Amino acid sequence: MNLKNWSKLFIKTLLVGAVVSIITGFLLPFSRESISFKDVSDVLFYLLILFGFGAMASVYSQLGFFAYMILNYTAIGIPRKVWQYIQLTLAVLALLEVMFFRSFVGKGNSQIADLLVGIAILIVAIAVAYFKVKATNPTAWIPTIFFMIAITVVEMIGGLKINVNNATIFILIPLLACNAYQILILHKLLKPKKS
Question: Residue 56 and residue 171: Cα distance in Å, rounded?
Fold first, then answer.
């Protein structure tokens, strides 16, 4: 990956995070209660806040993405099958942590909400892995599942600590969108140009 490709990935991921955050920010409050804006400046300020939050979420996503790339690179010395089993085990543990850990430590959050978050992450991970395999090769299943589950869970730890369902959703959706975009576009960025 050269600097030109990295800068393109950075800007595009930033825009994905910002756009998804703006859409989520306008749809999420309307699912419970309506927001009242006094004038146009309130709407513009709300858009600016949503844009900034989406940009921040995309930076978290990119940090997780490059951490995963470094982890994957350092695992070159591990036999391929062993590394795949390790990734699958860590993905399952991360999913179980999201779905059940807060219930066990008694934080008082709804078990159903945590279960739904875990199921949503799993469904998105499977869908992204399916498209990644179609675009590349069958060996992409487990690394994509690991990235979409385990790395997303690590990135959203701050949102889980807030212990508010809307905050968790508001953090989760842009992170999933940015992670999906990055993993699906990676093979195109790394493909050598034909001369």
Answer: 10
Question: Hey, what are 149's tokens?
Answer: 């589950």
What token pair was written down for 91? 């993905």
- Please name the residues in contact with 11: beta carbons below 8 A apart, sequence gap of 6 or more: none
What residue has token string 């869908």? 127
| Distance from C-alpha of 108 to C-alpha of 18, rounded to nearest angstrom | 31
How sure is the predictor about 107, in pLDDT bands with cuts at 50, 70 and 90?
Answer: low
| 36 membership: H or E segment, kind and range | none
* Digit-coded pLDDT (tens) for 113-125: 888 889 999 999 9
Cβ–Cβ < 8 Å for 90, 125: no
**CB crowding 132-154: b at 16 or more within 10 Å, else e:** beeeeeeebbbbbbbbbbbbbbe
Query: Residues 20, 134: contact at Cβ < 8 Å?
Result: no
**Element spanning 107, H or E:** none
Closest CA to 175 of 28, 50, 56, 66: 56
